[in-house]
Write a structure and sequence with these properties.
Elements lengths: L3 H21 L3 H9 L2 H11 L4 H15 L3 H10 L1 H11 L4 H9 L1
InterPro entries: ARM-like, ARM-type_fold
Length: 107
């Protein structure tokens, strides 16, 4: 993703995109469309690209939680993307930031 300076400028955009996905995924039909277009895998990719950005992690966990609550097949797809393996270490990392920790625990 380029230099650290460019990466730092991309983190807020990734956080906003994940917030948008989180909101859109509340609609069951939209959640299925997101699933079919690999949005879960992309969200994990962004979360891995910006591991120290709490906004990205919080929004990503919110999106994962919304997707997981929709249908069994979406939960299964999340398992295959590595979503839960990514989320578990976030508990330790964000113990001091309750707003992030709440989303991590919901996911």
């Amino acid at each position: 993703m380029g230099s650290p300076e460019k990466r730092a400028h991309c983190a807020p955009l990734a956080g906003r995109l994940l917030e948008l996905l989180c909101s859109i995924s509340l609609n069951p039909e939209a959640a299925v469309a997101l699933y079919r277009n690999n949005a879960a895998a992309k969200s994990i990719e962004w979360m891995r690209a910006f591991p120290d950005d709490s906004s990205v992690q919080r929004s990503g966990c919110c999106f994962i939680q919304n997707m997981a609550s929709r249908r069994l097949r979406l939960r299964e797809a999340l398992l295959h993307t590595g979503a839960f393996e990514h989320v578990l270490p976030l508990v330790q990392r964000y113990l001091e930031q309750p707003e992030v920790l709440c989303e991590v625990l919901r996911a």
